[in-house]
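2024-03-11 09:14:02 INFO worker-7 job=invfold-0412 stage=load source=structure_tokens
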């Protein structure tokens, strides 16, 4: 390194100044020692002092140069350190004394350093300190550097003149390692020229003519201040015909500015000057004009239409957009947070101007809402009122119960506006918002994130060619052969600017041909239709910007770069957990946690002092309002980038995505948004895409088991549990989104095998929320169609059915799933749809059978299951047997409950739990149902239905007793039987002795009541005979155990004649 400097015939002090100006001297003494030793070895033999002052011995000369250099550095620090008092600074005598004689090993007799020589050094240092890199030089060409360059050039010239052949060889030897000198010189020149170059690019792009005054204030009196105005361009928005030639005035400047800026950005990256690259990129973004001129006082100038009109009128601004987008796609790893924020803000402006190609406005997964629901959702969003969506009044509405009806056929001449939004004919009047919107930025009314301009239907019809798309459908990204066929020439040799220019010229020619074509009256509608300016601009961007690379190429970014990209998107969302979009403001996510990627070459800061002042200075503090539609677009981009980098979710989720999704959605639990001034629920497109984004990530995580628990488990922190919370939560409008997402998660059944406790808690939160929400939706009218396939109740049932019918997962399903089934049973009753309740009861029975079969032979596990899950299943069935309004549901529940104690798997349940459940839950339940029927208070349509339900209640009382009696007796625990038998006697005594003549009773036919009494008495007789034969009861009422005495006393209280009782005893004895 020292050999790269020209020390020949220079004083040691000048050589040291030049040497130290090239780098920053380290602070460690050992490093300084090695650096100065290398300098002394090279300089001692070449400096002026080598022939006059230093010893002829190279070793002594090198040591003397080393000590003197070290002393000079110490003197420089001493003289120019403000912390050293003036009376303590080194004097010239001190300096001379310290350096005159270094000892006999270094200084030869008679070769002491002269006082005049040392004093001159002292004076020079005192007058002008030595500045190192970063202390003033900072990349600038100092006097010492220019001297070094000139000396090398003079030496090369002299050598060439003296002996051309030898000089060439000598130069080759001496300058071969000086490629670093050339690179260094290139960088030094670049530091001084990059701003003037950008100023020239700004001139090509007519920046001074397009931007508002430097103060940034719009002159409202004159009405001036449009963001983009091409000098000399007199055309208005939507210009066509002969005026289109005015737009071509800036084509040449657009081409030159594009090519120069792309080459400059590429060049500074190649040199490793990422600092200049980022500043240049920021300038290019500002040159687009899309980050300037927003004023809250005049929203008309900031609306999407204003942006579109201005952008259409300026090909220079369009070329700047192309440069910014192409650079971000190709060199995104070198952008910092501010660069990404500027880039995304530009993309949002293009979205609001409706000039983005449709393939970028599609999700890679199918919509969570089906087509009719999406239309209803879009209508409600445009109306600004989600109240009907929350109440589910739009679904299956025929105009009677619902507040709105979506017509099936167009009834308006403006049906194309409906096609532009929905893709089908819809009347224009359904799209008119009934509310007055408070407009501050001109973007409040942009609420549909994937809409296109209503006048640009022809763009979609031409571009959508039935070809697949990586973004989920629609018109695919452009191919090279398509662009070549459009331009009619080979584009391989053309620069991006030339291609852009060729497109503009081609469009101009097409317009001229269209205008000059004679009208014969035989033309078709397609032949007479001329493409709109906005449609041409959209096609232009599609062909030149490589917009698909934002998502598809994100997988090639390193971890830090993709985090910067996502963090910039999150910062742009005004309702997210981060700060709003003001460059330079701090965010809650600390950017310092992401290291800036290091590149080859020199990473230096650029001096703010330049020899040129550009015509336009990029703003370091800027603000662009984000429309609701762009907020939703940002959420879609976050999810799409995350899905494209699913292999890096393990890093992205804890560092960024978890804070974004969980932070934003959990906040709604404690601070739900209030209704607007009209009492309506405002739409929130960004919140919709935030919720669907987390659902899509949850589905994706089931395919990658390493992140399923973290992502799916996050739902337990988000969803409201209490009904009061659900009533106030904005989540209530997303019931179809969440239920469809639940179904898609469960459909990947293999991915659920890896769920741990946290993952199952999150999945259960989704199950319970969907089930609870379904119970609050409107009732199904009698004799109407069944529940829709996308109804939350149906989706929840399908998901549970899939879960419970999957093999090998029985042991993993938590018992809390019973609560969800219980809620579904209640939902079927409240929504007047008993089929749902009955189907859910079947799933309860299936859950019991699956669990018991899986735990067969594991006594300890069965004991735990019986005490928790099995008991909850019994309670759920018992609740369904008593409370529903529909007799068929109650009957089905009674039958399921009885079968629960009789099937083969019930033998695995400990008899203690069986007897406890029967005596505490089932038998009292049957007694209440019997008494209710006897009093005529039950909602039973006919006597036959009443008798069926009565028989099921009697069966529930006696069948489990007969089935499990032997098990109870085998365990030698009579205490198991006594509570159950006592509960049975209590129920029968209340039934057989009930007063049916009270005021609350409803007339029940005497014949039916008699039949019911006879059936109950018959079952009691069979039970007593069975107990006597099993020697549980003894025939003598005055002797035996407490169970016997209690039995005979209760039977007599029921009104059973003693003669009949004696007959039962005799039969029991004979059976024994």
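2024-03-11 09:14:09 INFO worker-7 stage=emit residues=1072
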């Amino acid at each position: 390194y020292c050999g790269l400097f020209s020390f020949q015939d220079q004083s040691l002090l000048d050589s040291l100044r030049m040497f130290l100006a090239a780098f920053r001297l380290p602070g460690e003494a050992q490093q300084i020692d090695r650096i100065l030793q290398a300098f002394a070895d090279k300089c001692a033999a070449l400096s002026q002092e080598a022939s006059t002052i230093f010893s002829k011995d190279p070793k002594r000369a090198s040591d003397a140069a080393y000590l003197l250099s070290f002393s000079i550095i110490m003197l420089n620090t001493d003289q120019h350190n403000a912390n050293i008092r003036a009376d303590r600074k080194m004097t010239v005598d001190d300096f001379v004394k310290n350096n005159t004689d270094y000892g006999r090993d270094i200084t030869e007799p008679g070769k002491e350093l002269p006082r005049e020589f040392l004093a001159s050094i002292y004076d020079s240092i005192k007058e002008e300190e030595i500045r190192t890199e970063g202390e003033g030089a900072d990349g600038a060409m100092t006097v010492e550097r220019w001297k070094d360059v000139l000396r090398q050039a003079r030496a090369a010239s002299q050598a060439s003149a003296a002996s051309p052949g030898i000089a060439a060889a000598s130069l080759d030897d001496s300058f071969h390692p000086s490629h670093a000198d050339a690179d260094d010189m290139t960088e030094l020149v670049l530091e001084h020229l990059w701003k003037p170059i950008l100023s020239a690019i700004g001139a090509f792009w007519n920046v001074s003519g397009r931007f508002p005054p430097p103060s940034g204030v719009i002159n409202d009196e004159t009405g001036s201040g449009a963001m983009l105005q091409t000098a000399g361009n007199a055309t208005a928005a939507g210009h066509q015909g002969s005026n289109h030639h005015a737009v071509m005035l800036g084509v040449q400047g657009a081409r030159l500015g594009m090519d120069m800026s792309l080459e400059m950005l590429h060049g500074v990256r190649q040199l490793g000057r990422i600092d200049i690259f980022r500043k240049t990129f920021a300038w290019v973004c500002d040159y687009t004009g899309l980050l300037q001129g927003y004023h809250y006082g005049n929203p008309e100038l900031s609306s999407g239409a204003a942006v579109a009109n201005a952008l259409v009128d300026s090909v220079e601004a369009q070329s700047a957009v192309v440069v910014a987008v192409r650079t971000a796609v190709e060199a995104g790893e070198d952008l910092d947070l501010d660069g990404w924020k500027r880039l995304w803000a530009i993309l949002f402006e293009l979205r609001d101007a409706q000039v983005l190609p449709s393939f970028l406005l599609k999700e890679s997964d199918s919509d969570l809402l089906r087509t009719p629901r999406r239309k209803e959702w879009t209508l409600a969003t445009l109306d600004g009122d989600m109240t009907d969506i929350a109440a589910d009044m739009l679904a299956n509405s025929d105009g009677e119960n619902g507040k709105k009806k979506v017509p099936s056929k167009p009834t308006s001449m403006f049906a194309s506006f409906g096609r532009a939004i929905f893709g089908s004919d819809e009347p224009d009047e359904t799209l008119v918002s009934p509310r007055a919107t408070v407009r501050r930025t001109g973007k409040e009314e942009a609420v549909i994130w994937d809409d296109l301009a209503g006048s640009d239907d022809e763009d979609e019809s031409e571009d959508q060619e039935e070809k697949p798309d990586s973004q989920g459908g629609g018109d695919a990204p452009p191919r090279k052969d398509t662009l070549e066929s459009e331009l009619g020439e080979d584009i391989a040799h053309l620069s991006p600017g030339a291609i852009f220019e060729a497109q503009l010229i081609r469009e101009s020619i097409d317009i001229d041909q269209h205008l000059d074509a004679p009208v014969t009256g035989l033309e078709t509608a397609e032949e007479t239709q001329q493409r709109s300016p906005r449609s041409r601009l959209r096609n232009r961007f599609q062909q030149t910007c490589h917009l698909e690379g934002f998502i598809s190429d994100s997988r090639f970014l390193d971890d830090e770069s993709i985090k910067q990209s996502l963090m910039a998107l999150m910062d742009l969302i005004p309702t997210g957990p981060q700060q709003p979009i003001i460059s330079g403001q701090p965010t809650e996510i600390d950017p310092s946690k992401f290291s800036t990627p290091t590149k080859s070459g020199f990473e230096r800061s650029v001096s703010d002092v330049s020899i040129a002042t550009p015509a336009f200075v990029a703003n370091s503090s800027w603000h662009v309002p984000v429309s609701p539609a762009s907020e939703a677009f940002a959420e879609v981009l976050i999810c799409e980038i995350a899905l494209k980098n699913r292999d890096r979710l393990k890093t992205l989720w804890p560092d960024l995505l978890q804070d974004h999704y969980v932070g934003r959605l959990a906040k709604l639990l404690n601070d739900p948004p209030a209704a607007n001034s009209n009492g309506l629920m405002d739409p929130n497109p960004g919140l919709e895409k935030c919720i669907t984004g987390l659902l899509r990530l949850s589905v994706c995580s089931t395919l990658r088991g390493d992140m399923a628990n973290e992502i799916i488990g996050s739902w337990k922190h988000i969803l409201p549990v209490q009904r009061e919370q659900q009533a106030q939560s904005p989540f209530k409008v997303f019931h179809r989104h969440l239920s469809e997402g639940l179904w898609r998660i469960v459909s990947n059944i293999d991915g659920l095998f890896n769920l741990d406790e946290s993952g199952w808690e999150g999945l259960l939160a989704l199950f319970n929320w969907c089930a609870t929400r379904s119970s609050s939706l409107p009732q199904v009218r009698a004799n109407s169609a069944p529940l829709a396939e996308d109804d939350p109740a149906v989706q929840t049932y399908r998901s549970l059915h899939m879960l419970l019918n999957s093999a090998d997962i029985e042991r993993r399903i938590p018992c809390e799933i019973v609560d969800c089934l219980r809620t579904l049973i209640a939902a079927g009753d409240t929504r007047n749809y008993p089929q749902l309740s009955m189907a859910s009861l079947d799933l309860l029975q299936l859950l019991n059978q699956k669990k018991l079969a899986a735990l067969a032979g594991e006594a300890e596990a069965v004991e735990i299951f019986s005490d928790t899950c099995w008991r909850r299943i019994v309670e759920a069935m018992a609740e369904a047997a008593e409370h529903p309004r529909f007799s068929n549901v109650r009957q089905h529940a009674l039958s399921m409950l009885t079968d629960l104690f009789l099937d083969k798997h019930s033998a695995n349940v400990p008899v203690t739990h069986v007897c406890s459940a029967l005596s505490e839950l089932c038998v009292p339940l049957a007694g209440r149902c019997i008494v209710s029927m006897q009093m005529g208070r039950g909602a039973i349509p006919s006597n036959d239905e009443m008798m069926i339900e009565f028989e099921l209640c009697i069966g529930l009382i006696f069948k489990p007793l007969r089935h499990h009696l032997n098990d109870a007796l085998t365990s030698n625990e009579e205490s198991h039987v006594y509570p159950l038998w006592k509960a049975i006697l209590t129920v029968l005594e209340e039934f057989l002795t009930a007063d049916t003549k009270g005021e609350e009773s409803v007339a029940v036919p005497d014949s039916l009541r008699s039949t019911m009494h006879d059936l109950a008495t018959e079952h009691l007789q069979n039970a007593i005979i069975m107990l006597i034969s099993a020697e549980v009861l003894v025939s003598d009422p005055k002797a035996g155990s407490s169970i016997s005495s209690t039995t005979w006393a209760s039977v007599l209280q029921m009104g059973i004649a003693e003669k009949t009782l004696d007959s039962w005893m005799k039969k029991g004895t004979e059976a024994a």
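2024-03-11 09:14:09 INFO worker-7 stage=report msg="The mean pLDDT is 76."
2024-03-11 09:14:10 INFO worker-7 job finished
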